[in-house]
User: What shape does this take?
Amino acid sequence: GNNDNNNDNEDDEDYPGCTNIFTIGAKSVKVGGCRLYLSLFFIGEANNPEKGAWRMNQNGDGGIDLYYKDATGALIVMFKEDAILVNRLGTSPSMDYLMQESSMLNGMLDQLDEIAMDSSINESDRLICIEGDEINTVRESLS
Assistant: This one.
């Protein structure tokens, strides 16, 4: 896969100053359902650690933008049929931002882990199907 972390998406003119934090490769992603599920999670986290910490927008590409209150950084979550990509927008994010980003991303990975591994749901009905240990691999790359 193209999971090397130095692939700055400079050719992505929508978001200058964007770097890929991680990409979760999947066997399948139900894009609409997955986006809704994570939107609800992000809305629930928006006031963490304080009210108005994060502001969520759906972007034109059908992804989710999460803007942090100090405006030094934002998370751009993109959904494809076979992957979920998370990019950071902002060339000099604050320490505060980075701390909250880490907590938000770990929470997001927990959510994905939960729906990907839910054995009470047929694999073909899951919002995301992931092979092997993809989520733990991503989680380790964050720490």
Q: What stands out?
A: The longest strand covers residues 18-25. Helices lie at 31-45, 95-116, 134-142.
